[in-house]
Design brief:
alpha/beta, single chain, binds adenosine-5'-triphosphate, about 60% helix, binds magnesium ion
């Protein structure tokens, strides 16, 4: 505290020298700059919400990450656009228009999940991916299937909440700053100065000048705060003792089923415990901004909006759906549970209400995308009712050597780019020449053919084998600043393994 007052006195003299207008202007500039940045960020968020991509734009976006598979891209693009179209239609007809649920059929590792994942990011809609096979466990059947919708709703709420918190960010930052200033500089009168002024006969104006003094100091502090000059100072703030260890409360299974968390219930009834915590100003600012943002958000409206968004725009991706399809059999055993899962899925896919902790959520217009390799079973092995709810079927192609070359190099997150970036962190420039890349693709295709076709995943295993030594020896042994991977090197490293089928079965 002592050094704060000292700094203060020094600054006061400085300030007296400068013209008041200057400082004010400076602050204004900073303020407008800050607002501008915030505005830009806010714009981009709401923009992406409003801006609905046309089908061809959606495909173009998907093209950035996924090579080929044009039919699949087309169908998902149409399905996505249709939800926007549906939104524009008058109420009575709108209710009638059901989503075009899709089944993606194709061998493993050709981009089925990847398409769904990218689609979710594009659509800015609540998206959940589940493995159908997870629901086969007998005993869980029936219960867990509804949890899909519950989780989707949770995601929706989180999503809307984080959007809202961006909206209130600026205000929260301002309030947090005020609170920080209150902590750093409790609004008290400075006795000595008061006394001085009193003896000088300023009694009438004293109050006013006190206020002004407080204000000036506060602004001075604000400036220091914003310059980060106080970042390392330790202060004490009240935090609610949320993380306090509490007995795990187990409710009866039924409650858990509803997504009701007893612990949540209890903690909302019990008085909030506060405790003091020491932290640096920098940490405190982050903490307080979060706390203020939390207070500013109206959870009721967040939940309302989230439920609408889940109902109208939610996407459920059911992976491995072929695992729950099997030739119809009358026998007991796992088939029973498979069909059981299908029957459980049916009401959700068909449209029903699911109770979540945020209220009822209807699933009529949720878009379902299922995917499966369908090696053993066929889509027609699904129960007819379920087949009917997935009217669109798209086949994805196996990937060829040419595709592999493109997958290695073209997508924004292409594997080669990833490795280049990893080694760049060690200041090493990793370069693949064209022939080297073709060789990698060729080997991948070969191994896929000879051992097992795992699609583009093969590239991961091959590259990690190829680059293992380099990744291990950097930076200790490798002193070169540039490493070129060419055809010879790829062959040296991999030919023996590829030739030996037993070896490649284990390594690649
Ligand atoms: N067409 C493609 N273009 C670019 N990358 C691809 C493509 N296909 C697959 N990949 C890459 O291969 C990996 C596996 O793909 P993905 O998860 O989509 O397989 P999948 O088709 O869902 O297989 P599975 O049936 O086993 O679930 C991902 O990392 C993905 O980036
Ligand atoms: Mg998959």
């Amino acid at each position: 505290m002592k050094d704060i007052t000292m700094e203060l006195n020094e600054e006061k003299t400085e300030e007296e020298g400068s013209t008041p207008g200057q400082n004010g202007d400076d602050d204004m500039n900073k303020e407008t700059k800050k607002t501008k940045v915030k505005k830009d960020r806010k714009l981009s968020v709401s923009d992406s919400l409003k801006k609905e991509l046309t089908p061809s734009q959606i495909v173009a976006e998907l093209d950035k990450y996924i090579i080929g598979q044009d039919n699949a891209k087309k169908s998902v693009a149409i399905a996505l656009r249709n939800r926007w179209r549906r939104k524009q239609i008058p109420d009575n007809l709108r209710e009638e228009i059901m989503p075009n649920n899709i089944i993606l059929i194709g061998p493993t590792g050709v981009g089925k999940t990847e398409i769904a994942r990218r689609l979710a990011r594009l659509s800015n809609a609540p998206f959940i991916k589940v493995e159908a096979s997870k629901f086969t466990e007998v005993g869980y059947v029936g219960r867990d299937v509804e949890s899909i919708v519950r989780e989707l709703t949770d995601l929706g709420v989180t999503m809307v909440k984080s959007e809202k918190s961006i909206e209130v960010q600026k205000k929260a930052e301002f309030l947090a700053e005020e609170r920080l200033l209150d902590i750093l500089l409790p609004p008290v009168k400075k006795k000595t100065e008061d006394a001085n002024q009193a003896t000088l006969g300023f009694t009438a104006a004293q109050n006013e000048s006190d206020k002004e003094e407080n204000f000036k100091t506060r602004e001075k502090f604000r400036e220091m705060l914003n310059k980060g000059e106080m970042d390392e100072r330790i202060i004490e703030i009240d935090v609610s003792a949320d993380g306090m260890p509490m007995m795990q409360v187990m409710g009866p299974i039924g409650l858990d089923d509803l997504g009701v968390n007893l612990q949540d219930l209890f903690s909302s009834v019990m008085p909030k415990k506060m405790k003091k915590r020491k932290m640096t100003v920098k940490e405190a600012r982050v903490f307080l901004v979060q706390e203020e943002a939390h207070k500013l958000i109206d959870m009721d409206s967040v939940i309302k909006e989230a439920i609408v968004r889940v109902q109208e725009f939610g996407i459920v991706f059911i992976d491995e759906i072929d695992k729950i399809a099997g030739p119809h059999s009358k026998s007991q055993g796992p088939d029973v549970s498979r069909e059981g899962v299908q029957r459980d899925l049916l009401p959700i896919v068909e449209g029903s209400s699911v109770t979540t902790k945020y209220g009822m959520v209807r699933t009529d217009h949720v878009l379902f995308i299922a995917s499966g390799a369908f090696h053993v079973s066929k889509p027609s092995d699904l129960i007819p009712e379920l087949q009917g709810r997935f009217p669109i079927r798209v086949e994805l192609n196996s990937l060829t050597e040419d595709d592999f070359v493109k997958i290695l190099t073209q997508p924004q997150n292409a594997l080669l780019k990833q490795y280049e970036a990893l080694l760049k962190a060690e200041s090493i420039e990793l370069e693949f020449d064209d022939e080297g890349i073709v060789e990698i693709a060729k080997i991948a295709a070969e191994v896929n053919e000879q051992v097992e076709n795992i699609g583009a995943r093969r590239l991961h295993t091959i590259l990690s084998t190829l680059l293992e030594d380099i990744l291990f020896d950097t930076p200790d042994k490798i002193k070169e600043k540039k490493i070129l991977i060419n055809k010879n090197m790829v062959q040296d490293k991999l030919k023996d393994i590829v030739k030996n089928r037993d070896l490649s079965r284990y390594i690649l």
